[in-house]
């Protein structure tokens, strides 16, 4: 259940665009973040005219924000390049998500029925999503 108001018929925005085209609602994964379009067979782009977009149950294990002004400030403070400092923080985020995934992979479904039984994790299985998806890198 999300407390946000979603304009399904507005003139601008991905929420109304998706609703008008596919008759599906994109729910936010936090206060301002919405999932991008993802297709069952084609991934980022539809494989064909019959490829179905997926907007729920896409393995959201947490949102991490980057504070870009802070990263710029640190790069100047330490005389390091911005992208070097950015890479450092991106790697930290990657490790956080990997440890979260490892932690969740060991959990039983009853500990989080919304994720495992009600579609929060694609098909109700944590491992099947990660190992069988095109998201894996």
Walkthrough of the structure:
With 137 residues, this protein is mostly helical. It has two domains: 1-56, no CATH class; 59-137, no CATH class. The protein contains five helices and no strands. It has helices spanning 14-22, 68-77, 82-105, 113-116, 126-132. Helix 2 packs across helix 3 (82-105). The model is unreliable at 133-137 (pLDDT under 50).
Fraction in beta strands: under 5%
Report mean pLDDT, rounded to a whole number.
76
Q: Strand-and-helix sequence, N→C?
A: HHHHH
Bulk shape: extended
Count of the separate structural domains: 2
Uncertain segments are 133-137
- Give the structural class: mainly alpha
Fraction in helix: 25-40%
The tally of beta strands, per DSSP, is 0
Total of DSSP H or I helical runs spanning 4+ residues: 5
Q: What is the CA-atom radius of gyration, in angstroms?
A: 18 Å
Major sheet: none
N- to C-terminal separation? 31 Å
């Amino acid at each position: 259940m999300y407390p946000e108001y979603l304009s399904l018929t507005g003139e601008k925005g991905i929420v109304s665009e998706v609703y008008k085209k596919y008759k599906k609602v994109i729910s936010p994964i936090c206060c301002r973040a919405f999932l991008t379009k993802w297709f069952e067979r084609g991934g980022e782009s539809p494989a064909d005219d019959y490829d179905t977009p997926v907007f729920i149950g896409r393995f959201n294990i947490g949102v991490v924000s980057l504070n870009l002004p802070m990263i710029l400030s640190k790069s100047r403070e330490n005389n390091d390049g911005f992208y070097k400092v950015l890479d450092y923080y991106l790697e930290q985020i990657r490790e956080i998500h990997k440890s979260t995934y490892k932690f969740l992979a060991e959990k039983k479904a009853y500990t989080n029925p919304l994720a495992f039984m009600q579609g929060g994790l694609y098909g109700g299985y944590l491992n099947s999503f990660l190992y069988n998806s095109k998201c894996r890198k």
